[in-house]
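Much of what follows relies on a compact textual record of a protein's fold. Here is one such record, which you should read through line by line:
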Amino acid sequence: MSRDRSRDRSKDRSSERSKDRSSDRSRRRSRDRSRDRSSRKDAPKVREKRRRKPSQYWDIPPPGFEHISPYQYKAMQAAGQIPATLFAAPGTVPVPIVGSTLTRQARRLYVGNIPFGCSEEEMMDFFNSQMHECGFAQAPGNPVLASQINLDKNFAFLEFRSIDETTQAMAFDGINFKGQSLKIRRPHDYQPMPGMSETPQITVPGVISTVVADSPHKIFIGGLPNYLNEDQVKELLMTFGHLRAFNLVKDSATGLSKGYAFCEYKDINITDQAIAGLNGMQLGDKKLIVQRASVGAKSGPLAQPGAALATPVQIQVPGLQTVAGGLGQPTEILCLMNMFTEEDLQDDEEYDDILKDIEDECAKYGTVKSIEIPRPISGVDVPGVGKVFVEFSSSLESQKAQQSLTGRKFANRVVVTSFLDPDKYHQRQFQ
């Protein structure tokens, strides 16, 4: 009995010692946490300096293409020289290029002279069918991803899944669709590779292109009665041989013939024969004027006695006239426009970021001596608001920057450029 009580007391003391040790550990942990909170509370606060974000305005090159200029990249993209995928870092998924927004500019085609009442589905079905029939489709499925039609202005845009298929589809220029000869062109924002051909590798049998290239064999046909349509004029011209290209010039607003056209024969040896046979021909109350379109080109011998001699005619095609002066005389002052709105210049931090971004980018092309970005002032008409004026150390550097920055995007806006007279710049006579 005595031994049992002794064991019980021993157990009680052991239990009490265990509880004491546990209580000591808890008190120590509590003191340590208290000291940590106190030290963090008493530590002096370090104010972080505002770190300027990387450029959020200029177009950022895709991974792997940081070593080339945006203009070169756009040219390579348009020429189909960008690979099907841009490989990301090891272990990550490649970024697809075909069908992505990155190449959308080079995968779109303008289609003019479309039939009235044509639907977007009909356009897609027609071109997808033609692509497969002619062997232009490079993979199963439909090459045309989307169609957008403007019925008011009688044109459409087609978006293809790849750059190569888009280029091949250019061969359909002049194809007949529901009685209309379609005009297929690259969009205005398309940037081709300088010095490289942008034409398809294969021609489509029976299709006469609507693009008559400038060459010594390009023929001008004037004095056409306005009531003649494309098929009637082509039928007249094809009495001498097969046509490579033909374009009846029409009024963009009404779609009616302007009375003149251009053509080129597949066999260039019959050019003179066709000119001789058609020049001076009487059609209704009009007499045809047919001659080589190139300036200073030789006139062919007139086969018909008494045929009227062609009087040299200067053709001015609407939309092709150049504005006198263009960008202006190159100077060391480059003016950048269409880059931001007046609201973008209100915030001081955003203004500083814009200024720094532009300065850093322009410094790649020469020494930037100064930059002026006029800011709006409430109730005051500030000249030059919305423009950027960059002073380089020489006009050569300014021209280099102009060639590289024109057409670039800044805050999703296409950059427009011109030059400013240095005297006006230093006198702050901004325009």
In short: The first strand starts at residue 85 and ends at 86. The two ends are 114 Å apart (CA to CA). The longest helix spans residues 2-42.
